[in-house]
Specification:
Radius of gyration: 15 Å
Order of helices and strands: EEHEHEHHEHEH
Oligomer: single chain
Number of helices: 6
Helix content: 25-40%
Largest sheet: 6 strands, mixed
Structural class: alpha/beta
Strand order of the largest sheet: 2-1-6-3-4-5
Shape: globular
Distance between the termini: 18 Å
């Protein structure tokens, strides 16, 4: 499980999740990198694959820092990710109450390397919407599939 982090479009940091002792250590490390990456109070942060457990915890911690971070989570299906109750195990889910409480977290549809799961055209233009003004991109796209490789290519 590798995670790549692009900080200010200049530095890419590769982390191996298997070498980290726990999820809390990983979240603390990511939070520290984001705080040190720019000497201003707020950042525009994009998290690809952020509807899983790690992305949910990371976005919650960043929101609770009260520094004005704007967090955009790229989701294969934003409609299902923000539903009041989990609809499908095939897609990530944050839930309506999570997004209401964490009002700095927004969802954005994207293709995520898997065009077979896309319905409609809501994913089009995500690069301009989400990446254009991003200070930091965290890639948490999971699985050992071709989808992960394609998703990483789209982000970079």
């Amino acid at each position: 499980n590798n995670v790549s982090i692009l900080v200010e479009r200049k530095i890419t940091i590769m982390l191996n999740l298997n070498t980290l002792k726990s999820l809390k250590v990983f979240i603390a490390l990511i939070s520290s990198l984001l705080v040190l990456s720019k000497p201003i109070l707020s950042l525009n942060i994009v998290i690809a694959g952020g509807t899983g457990q790690v992305g949910r915890n990371l976005s919650s911690i960043l929101h609770n820092q009260n520094k004005g971070h704007q967090i955009t989570i790229l989701a294969r299906n934003a409609f299902l990710a923000k539903a009041p109750a989990r609809v499908s195990g095939d897609f990530g889910w944050l839930g309506e109450s999570f997004l209401e409480y964490h009002n700095s977290v927004k969802l954005r549809d994207w293709d995520g390397g898997d065009l077979l799961d896309i319905v409609g055209c809501d994913w089009m233009g995500w690069q301009d919407d989400a990446l254009k003004h991003a200070d930091c991109v965290v890639n948490l796209v999971g699985g050992y599939t071709e989808q992960r490789v394609m998703a990483c290519e789209r982000i970079v």
